[in-house]
Write a structure and sequence with these properties.
Helix content: 25-40%
Strand order of the largest sheet: 4-12-11-10-7-5-6
CATH architecture of the largest domain: 3-Layer(aba) Sandwich
CATH topology of the largest domain: Aspartate Aminotransferase, domain 2
Strand content: 15-25%
Number of helices: 14
CATH class of the largest domain: Alpha Beta
Radius of gyration: 22 Å
Number of domains: 2
Largest sheet: 7 strands, mixed
Distance between the termini: 35 Å
CATH superfamily of the largest domain: Type I PLP-dependent aspartate aminotransferase-like (Major domain)
Shape: globular
Amino acid sequence: MSLRESLPAIVTELPGPKAANVLARRAEVMPAAIRSIYPIVMDRAEGAMIEDPDGNIFLDWVGGVGVMNVGYTQPELVEAVRGQAGKFFHSMMNITTNPLYIEYAEAIAKIAPVCGGHKQVMFANSGAEANENAVKIAKSATGRPNIIVFSGAFHGRTALTMAMTAKKAYAHGMGPFPDGIYRAEFPYLYRRPAGMSEADAIAYYIGKLEEVFENASPAQYVAAIVFEPIQGEGGFVPAPYEWVEAVRAITGRHGILMVTDEVQTGFARSGRMFASEYYKEKGFAPDIMAFAKSVAGGLPLSGVVCSKEIMDKVTPGTIGGTYNGNALACASALAVLKKMQDEDYPAKALKIAGECNRRFLAWQGKYKEIGDVRGIGAMMGIEFVKDAAKTPYPELVSGIVASAWKKGLIIESAGTYGSVIRFLCPLCVTDAQLEAGLDIFEAAIEENL
């Protein structure tokens, strides 16, 4: 059986001797500040499966934190990169033109769910760069200095995006940060004020946003409101559609641009190619969208897309970069997009979500420690709590994560308090692999209760 079709199988103590040797070398040469959650060394990977140098096989439900939606080592991507590598690796777009950049930009412009008819695209290398450039575009286009972000947000680790990110464990000791970034409360419905209905909670959170105009920055100085359609590090918390619709009305009323950070939600994860498609279908598409992670199957690529009307207002020289739209990454990205469209990866996400929701909701009825099951498509989170007061239970989550990887399933925590387990399995996972992972997950829960 090929690795692509394999099931989890642990054949040595973990880590095995060969992996332990690599991990010891890692400890000598890599900064401890770049932490590793699992003592797992990758030797090869296919589909949703990873094999270490000792022959242990793991099912990956993290996918490089949302990078591997299309799966590892897909033959179409390998061939696309190999073909381009024989022509040239790199073209800086300020100097010469890489045709694959143009081809992929055309493809993204055609499907991007943002406002405007004529769309334009710029590429960068990471999610943080995409978000930073989205903010620069919004500021340049509006001539305004400020932005609004939210509690629970994660937008990156550059100086600007660390300031935008809510959890300051990601920015400890890194200040001072750029000015002009103001924060409102995100609509975390599971943790809404006690006794408040969901409808009243939407109004409450919109009120919290509008308070920023009174207490921090008048609306006429706000260039953009930036949010994730489903918060990632914040705990896989979806933005309610009613709230997004209200935000869209606020931005339209005040000439503010609405920016969606689709770094983690993009490329079929949500059951649409982009989660913002749900907004466009309902009549409140964003102005600007940033994307990254699963765009190129593991090669560094990210981007920003918006209308030509917005892009035309950007000051020349303020956006761009040496490696932006690298030729190998664009070749892989074109292959990813074709595969996702040909094989209907959004439908795969919805099928996976259906099976996971069936099991997760059954567990919620069985284990009182599961407080909430949520998400959109195959971007789902399970929040664990200690009691009816919804006290976070990070100790349980840490134990479940540790038990799971020892059984061959890689899962990861999320959330402000580390009390959420996230689901980001590659969307090419087989039915048998998914069931095996769910069985391991439940066994890990029971082992730690």
